[in-house]
Amino acid sequence: MASSKRWASLICSIAFSIYFFIIIFQVPIFSVPCRTGICETPLEVTSSQLIASEIFPRFIVKVLLYPGALAKAICKHKTIPSFGNLLKLYKFNTRAITSTSDLQRLEVLAGSYLSVAGAIMGLIKSGKMSLFGILLLMWGLIRESIMGKSSFTHAKGIHIYPAMYIALISAFFSIRKDVRKIIRSFTRKHVVKGKRF
């Protein structure tokens, strides 16, 4: 029993670390048109909406965006961006941003909010918010692309990248209860097979 708890804890912490890295360091997991051009991460969609709605101060949005901007600069061998010019780097201050322009993709918007909130809340206690966010994102993107092919809506520029599936798997395995159930069922089957022989 103790070993299953230990295994579940290890698997969950590794899975959450992968998920946290993908979301907070802004690994591109999809491509969707948004008010600033093309958004490729849930954090970009969330940040543009937070700036438009003016619910949070821009300082908080900058704090959320800075780790990803820093990681991109290091990976691309560019100069480290300054905290003051961060919104300019993401083109959040060059266009007139209104809070209604992203409301046509509610699933993508809600999924982005839940994905980012799940990554932040998971530092305190892991839950199902991350998984629901990624599933909602995938549903919204798939629905948009299907409707675009059926000529119901504009779906140009909508893509799902392979990193989305890694985020989905890591979000699932970051839920400790579910991982423990899987480990228990696997060990029970293993013990039953061992007793037969």
UniProtKB/TrEMBL annotation:
Spans through the membrane: 6-25, 129-146, 158-175
Alphabetical keyword list: Membrane, Transmembrane, Transmembrane helix
Protein name from the UniProt record: Uncharacterized protein LOC113857224
Gene that this polypeptide is encoded by: LOC113857224
